[in-house]
Amino acid sequence: MQLGLDVDVQKLEAERMRKGKIKAEEDLDKIKEEKIRVDQWEKKLQKARVRKVAELEKSLQQYHSRNSAIELKASLNKIEELKGKIEELESIQQNCELQLSFLKQTMNIGKRNSNALKVRLGIENTSCMKL
Questions:
Q1: 14 vs 2, 4, 21, 23, CA distance in Å?
Q2: DSSP, residue by residue, the chain
Q3: Which sequence spans correspond to the domains of the chain?
Q4: What is the sign, positive or negative, of the torsion defined by CA atoms of 72, 77, 78, 83?
Q5: Separation CA 93–CA 99 (nearest Å)
Q6: Distance (Å, rounded) from C-alpha 56 to C-alpha 50?
Q7: d(CA 51, CA 43)
Q8: What is the dihedral of CA 75, 76, 78, 79, to 10 degrees?
Q9: Residues 68, 61: Cα–Cα separation, whole Å
Q10: What is the pLDDT of residues 22-74, one digit of tens each?
Q11: Distance of CA 95 to the CA centre of its chain
Q12: Whole-number pLDDT of residue 116
C-alpha cells in the first residue's frame, strides 16, 4: 500500500509539475506578447515625438520669420518717417536759400542805391562847395 501511495504522490507531483511548466510557458508567452506590444508603443511614441519636434521646429521658424517681417516693417516705417523729415528739411533749406538770395539781391540794390546816393551827394557837395 505504501508503494501505491508513493506512486500516487509521484503522479500528483508530476501532474503538478506539468501544470506548473504549462503555466510558466503560458506566462512566458504572455510576457513575450506584452514585450512586443511595449516595443510597438515605443516605436509609435518615438514617431510621435519626431513629428512633434518637427512641428515645433516649423512653428519656431514661422515665429522667427514673423518677427523678422515685423522688424522689417518697423524698419521700413522708420525709413519712411526719416524720408519725410528729410523732405521737410530739404524744403526748409530751399526756402532759406531763396530768402538768402532775396536778401543778397536786396543788399545789392541797397548798395547801388547807396552808391548812387553817394554820387549824388558827392555832386551836391561839390556844387555846395562851389557856392
A1: 18, 15, 10, 14
A2: -HHHHHHHHHHHHHHHHHHHHHHHHHHHHHHHHHHHHHHHHHHHHHHHHHHHHHHHHHHHHHHHHHHHHHHHHHHHHHHHHHHHHHHHHHHHHHHHHHHHHHHHHHHHHHHHHHHHHHHHHHHHHHHHHH-
A3: 8-81
A4: positive
A5: 10
A6: 10
A7: 12
A8: 120
A9: 10
A10: 999 999 999 999 999 999 999 999 999 999 999 999 999 988 888 888 899 99
A11: 43
A12: 75
- pLDDT tens digits for range 83-101: 999 999 999 999 999 999 9
Cell of 80: 519712411
pLDDT at residue 3 tops 90 = no
Residue with grid cell 526719416, as numbered in its chain: 82
Looking at the chain, how many residues does it have? Answer: 131
The two most distant CA atoms of the chain are separated, in Å, by 188
Which residue has 512653428 as its cell numbers?
59
